[in-house]
């Protein structure tokens, strides 16, 4: 059980394209894979994490999702963007004559 290697070479997982097997295993003794992200960065990722959808990019996707959406840079509580939300400062500026 769990001893069969699943060849991930050439497969795409969101923004990651698997290029080759990493010479070292991941910390859980599973296969690690060398991937290239759509942004051009290269990372090594666990095959299990790829298949489970836990890793989708090199980190660039997270950075893009955290980009400010409000004029003042507010992105909401805990880094989550709330659609059509205006923070108090922006709302106050718009209300001024």
Can you characterise this structure?
By secondary structure, the protein is α+β, with helices and mostly antiparallel strands. It has helices spanning 47-52, 60-65, 88-95, and strands at residues 12-13, 16-21, 32-37, 42-46. A 4-stranded antiparallel β-sheet has the order 1-2-3-4. A hairpin with a 2-residue loop joins strand 1 (12-13) and strand 2. It is elongated, with a radius of gyration of 20 Å.
The beta-strand count equals: 4
Determine Rg (CA atoms, Å): 20 Å
H/E order of the elements? EEEEHHH
Helix content: 10-25%
The structure class reads alpha+beta
Tally of DSSP helical segments: 3
Residue runs with pLDDT of under 50 for 5 or more positions: none
Compute the average pLDDT.
Answer: 77
DSSP strand content = 15-25%
Described by the principal axes of the CA atoms, the overall outline is: elongated
- How is the main sheet built? 4 strands, antiparallel
Spatial sequence of strands, sheet with the most strands = 1-2-3-4
Distance between the termini: 70 Å
SSE diagram, text form:
Layout lengths: L11 E2 L2 E6 L10 E6 L4 E5 H6 L7 H6 L22 H8 L2
Antiparallel strand pairs: 1-2, 2-3, 3-4
Summarize the structure.
The protein is of the alpha+beta class and 97 residues long. It has 3 helices and 4 strands.
């Amino acid at each position: 059980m769990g001893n069969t290697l699943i060849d991930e070479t050439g497969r795409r997982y969101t923004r990651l394209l698997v290029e080759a097997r990493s010479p070292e295993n991941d910390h859980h003794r599973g296969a690690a894979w060398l991937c290239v992200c759509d942004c051009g960065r290269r990372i090594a990722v666990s095959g299990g994490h790829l298949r489970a959808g836990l890793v989708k990019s090199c980190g660039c996707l997270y950075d893009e999702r955290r980009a400010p959406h409000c004029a003042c840079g507010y992105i909401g509580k805990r880094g989550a963007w709330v659609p059509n939300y205006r923070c108090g400062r922006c709302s106050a500026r718009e209300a001024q004559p």
